[in-house]
Amino acid sequence: MSRALVLDTADEAVAGIEDGSTVLVGGFGLAGMPFDLIDALIRQGADDLTIVSNNAGNGTVGLAALLEAGRVRKVICSFPRQTDSYVFDGLYRAGKVALEVVPQGTLAERLRAAGAGIGAFFCPTGVGTPLAEGKETRVLGGRTFVLEYPISGDVALISAFKGDTLGNLVYRKTARNFGPVMATAARTVVAQVNEVVPAGSLDPEAVITPSIYVDRLVAVPARRYIVEGAR
Amino acid sequence: MAASSSIPKDHSAAIEHTDRGPLTADELAALIARDIPAGSYVNLGIGQPTRVADHLGPSSGVVLHTENGMLGMGPAAAGEQVDPDLINAGKLPVTELPGAAYFHHADSFAMMRGGHLDVCVLGAFQVSVTGDLANWHTGERDAIPAVGGAMDLAIGAKDVYVMMTLFTKDGAPKVVPACTYPLTGVRCVTRIYTDLAVLDVTPHGVVARQTFGASIAELQARLNITMDTP
Questions:
Q1: Closest to A109 (Cβ–Cβ): which among B77, B87, B109?
Q2: H/E run at residue A202
Q3: What is the band of B8 on the pLDDT scale with cuts at 50, 70, 90?
Q4: CA–CA gap between residue B158 and residue B202 (Å, rounded)
Q5: Chain B, nearest residue to A180 by Cα
Q6: Closest Cβ opposite residue A177 in set B69, B137, B156
Q7: Residue B186's beta-bridge partner residues?
Q8: B16 tagged catalytic
Q9: Do A130 and B152 touch (CB under 8 A)?
Q10: What is the tens place of the pLDDT at every residue in A116-170?
Q11: What are the residue boundaries of the structural domains of chain B, listed by start?
Q12: Fewer CB near the terminus (10 Å): N or C of chain B?
């Protein structure tokens, strides 16, 4: 796709997401969670979504709010159960949302494979465990591996620190998490950033997600959210 | 830094410390910290293993990895230090040390899966005598499965240390002939640190390095497994 569109509102940034889409959602817990894009997606109304994210929502914000709105058919994640994942827990126990649990590194690598044009890969993680049941295995160099397939999205919603007007992104600390890899793995990549800066003002050596991956960009005010366990 | 002077020095032969009680959780954390080679790259699992960090001083040269994308993780953040963008794998606020580095998730787990980490310390429900690990699921039918990075850590680090009590609150052994809980990894645990004993898992079986508040013979009887001595 050509250069990223810099949009004025999160609502414009999520326009056109269709019912039944697979949506990659960045973030690890609340760090790197694209809150404003998710809130806009709730307003936009797309339904029957498959969500790919590390967790299945915290508290009642972000992904938890999307789940609570009843828009999610299936969650593919590594760690749904947390102390504050009560929205997901309730929906799951009521049979209202499907779940595919994937080891965290395998989740990241399946996204990476999708973005890098890899058809499938043999992975040592999970061999001999319930998460490898029914999957093809192969012994390579005396070690057993399990065949894992890519996960691609129709849309990726990610959060970064700054973006330039071409769509180059830089992140901040551990909020980087899934952003760079999800940015490679979806047909349409939407990034919310704290600030959009002119092309040329980011250090090219420090760009983490090159502009080629980013389709839509919107600046949102930094959100000061509560950190679990903060003292 | 808690005092670790009460922990006896390691010896080449197994030592039965029957003149004292079992190790406290803090003593156990100190013992593990002392056994981690200086300069190692180490991942500490969520829960009890994070206590090991309290006993790794700057002089240890140990670099902590957190799987959400950081090397050089510092102590827990408090007050003004709390930054929502800087958290550990347990999603608690932490700090960064000089020389820290950030990276994305695929890199973080490539680091792990690729065998670059020297040691990881994990909690466990059960460990088998062949080093199988069960630490992610109790097998209850209505439990919501959540694996996180446990399986990646179990098969990734060069040495996988387990930190746990040797028996459940109900007295059931947690070192077992074969795990009854769903597995996290197969033949992956290299050493088991517990309140009552430190055990090596070798190709020839379980080897007792040290015991605390119990003899090897007593533990063998209670566990119903065979243990060698070094």
A1: B109
A2: none
A3: low
A4: 14
A5: B104
A6: B69
A7: none
A8: no
A9: no
A10: 999 999 999 999 999 999 999 999 999 999 999 999 999 999 999 999 999 999 9
A11: 15-76+85-228
A12: N
**Cβ A174–B185 below 8 Å, yes or no?**
no
Give percent of chain B above pLDDT 90: 84
Please list every residue in chain A whose beta carbon sits closer than 8 Å to the beta carbon of residue B96: 173
Bridge partner residues of B175 (DSSP):
B127
Collect all residues with Cβ–Cβ distance below 8 Å to A127 and sequence separation of at least 6: A137, A144, A145, A146, B155, B185, B186
Enumerate the residues of chain B whose CB falls inside 8 A of the CB of residue A103: 147-152
Tokens of B167: 């028996």
Indicate whether B141 pLDDT > 90: no
The amino acid at residue A145 is F
* DSSP class of A120: -
Question: What pLDDT does residue B4 have?
Answer: 45
Reading phi first (left if > 0) and then psi (alpha if -120 to 50, else beta), residue A83 is in alpha
Tell whether the model's pLDDT for residue B180 goes beyond 90. Answer: yes
Q: What span, in angstroms and rounded, lies between the C-alpha atoms of A92 and A89?
A: 5
For residue A201, give Cα distances in angstroms to A68, A162, A195, A196, A198: 40, 10, 12, 10, 6
d(CA A23, CA A1): 18
Distance, in angstroms, between B60 CA and closest chain A CA? 24
Whether B205 and B228 have beta carbons less than 8 Å apart is answered as: yes
Task: Please tell me the predicted confidence (pLDDT) of residue B122.
Answer: 97
Residue A3, Cβ density class (10 Å: 0-12 exposed, 13-18 middle, ≥19 buried) = middle
Tell me, which fold does domain B15-76+85-228 have in CATH? Glutaconate Coenzyme A-transferase (3.40.1080)
Contact A101, B145 (CB under 8 A): yes
Query: What tens digit of pLDDT does each residue of B154-170 get?
Result: 999 999 999 999 999 99
What is the ipTM metric for this complex? 0.94
3-state class of A115 per DSSP?
helix
User: Could B152 and A92 be called an inter-chain contact, meaning their C-beta atoms sit closer than 8 Å?
Assistant: no
Cα–Cα distance between B54 and B52 in angstroms, integer?
Answer: 5
A150 touches chain B (CB under 8 A): no
Task: Work out the percent of chain A whose per-residue pLDDT is above 90.
Answer: 88
Q: Where does residue A57 rank: exposed (0-12), middle (13-18), buried (19+ CB within 10 A)?
A: buried
Query: Each residue of B188-227: pLDDT tens digit?
Result: 999 999 999 999 999 999 999 999 999 999 999 999 899 9
**Which of B87, B112, B183 is closest, CB to CB, to A174?**
B87
Q: Which domains, ranges and CATH numbers included, belong to chain A? A: 5-119+150-219 (3.40.1080.10)
Residue B225, min C-alpha distance to chain A (Å)? 23
